[in-house]
Design a protein that fits this description.
The protein has 205 residues and is of the alpha/beta class. The protein is built from eight helices and five strands, in the order E-H-E-H-E-H-E-H-E-H-H-H-H.
Length: 205
């Protein structure tokens, strides 16, 4: 099963969200693992324990819900990649985060980002460009933040359209060299990619 990334805005709803997700995917409560940060972040030891548990303690479909992965270290996120290579038909990962763009591209490329709980094979979830460039995630971005988001999108979105790539690189250069407002620049990218996506769908019909 493809790992899911769910952006949360209300900490009080975490338990309900996990239960709803498990119910949607037909996973009983006894088959749910919830990994919470020790102190400020998830640790490498916790990830190693997860790997052991999913190998030896659970023989049926299991939900592994990991909280606050987006504020955990690169070392922790890299160690998690090994878990994502385990029996994908039996293990459903759910990452509950505040900001998905803080996750490593290698994790993002293996996941689907969702805005709310949906059953398998439902309508298309939020796109990566919407998650990266939407105004609700960009209202306080600095120039460095904007450049990092553009770089992340280029790295893990598998761009095959040279016109889109050139557009992103031109806006990136304007942000760095001409002090273009980073929030307006990301908003411009969102509109451009949304129009491009709409045109592509229309042409395919």
């Amino acid at each position: 099963m493809i790992p899911q990334i769910l952006t949360i805005t209300d900490e009080a709803q975490i338990e309900t969200t996990i239960s709803q997700f498990a119910h949607t995917y037909g996973i009983p409560s006894a088959q749910i693992m919830v990994i919470r940060p020790e102190k400020d972040e998830i640790t490498v030891d916790q990830i190693h324990l997860v790997q052991k548990d999913i190998q030896f303690s659970f023989k049926e479909k299991v939900l592994v819900a990991i909280l606050a992965l987006d504020v955990s270290s690169i070392e922790v996120q890299n160690s998690l990649l090994k878990c994502l290579e385990e029996d994908s038909e039996r293990i459903q990962f759910l990452f509950l985060v505040h900001n998905a763009t803080r996750l490593l591209p290698t994790i993002l490329s293996r996941c689907t980002i969702v805005q709310h709980i949906e059953p398998p094979h439902a309508d298309k979830p939020v796109t990566l460009y919407e998650e990266l460039f939407s105004y609700k995630n960009n209202s306080d971005n600095t120039k460095e933040d904007a450049v990092a988001k553009i770089d992340s999108y280029i790295e893990y979105s598998d761009l095959k359209d040279s016109a889109i790539l050139n557009k992103l690189l031109n806006i990136r250069k304007l942000i760095i060299d001409n002090n273009v407002n980073p929030i307006l620049a990301l908003d411009h990218i969102l509109i451009f990619l949304s129009k491009t996506s709409t045109m592509k769908v229309s042409n395919e019909k």
